[in-house]
Amino acid sequence: MQDNRWKILLVEDDVELAELIQDYLSCYEFSVEVVHDGSQAVSRIINDQPDLVILDLMPPGKDGISICKEVRADYSKIIIGFIFLKEMLII
What we know:
Elements: E1 7-11, H1 15-27, E2 31-35, H2 38-48, E3 52-56, H3 64-71, E4 78-82
Parallel strand pairs: 1-2, 1-3, 3-4
């Protein structure tokens, strides 16, 4: 039996946030894989060819803009970049 669910690659270094997003999307029948380090993201995106990449723009190892530039020639699907701010300090 073929799995017709959308494959999503989530690149997020915050483990708790990644689990929260993964659990939420899995409830809607998406297949979600998580990478916690930007240095692993490029090879996973190119090799796995997920339907969607949700990309933290500031993961450790390699920033999101660099990741986008590196995969541009070999990946033509959707990449959504985001910055999650846990705390905002206003002085």
